[in-house]
Amino acid sequence: MKAGCGKDMKVNVVLDMTPEEARKLMGLPDVSVLQEKMVAEMERRVKAAMDTSDPEAMMKAWMPLGGEGFQQFQRYLWDSAARATASPAKKDAPKR
Fold it and tell me: What is the DSSP letter of 94?
């Protein structure tokens, strides 16, 4: 068969590997130590807030930016959804 004769060939490759093996294959860094430290710090903060039995302190530990941070995140999601569903004419229109 000649190259470029207009017939496509489809190839599927299945790799059976652990997440660690996949990370190494793709050249990604091992962040498991950092993840363990972050989880331990989060647990420490939540336990400290729970020990005070102060609901406001617990909410600050769980949501550092409080309700404002949640509102900003929610606004970001809505704006992203609006941009993703905007018609092409609106996407190409110059911003004011």
Answer: P
Q: Are the C-beta atoms of residues 90 and 82 closer than 8 Å to each other?
A: no
Query: At 79, which amino acid appears?
Result: D
- Average confidence (pLDDT) over 3-28: 87
Rounded (10°) angle between helices 55-62 and 32-51: 170
Sign of CA dihedral 65, 30, 12, 9: positive
Which residue, 44, 47, 27, 24, is CA-closest to 36?
44
Asked whether the whole model's pTM tops 0.85, one would answer no
Domain ranges of the chain: 24-82
DSSP 5-65: SS------------HHHHHHHHT----HHHHHHHHHHHHHHHHHHHHTT-HHHHHHHH-TT
pLDDT for the residue numbered 21: 92
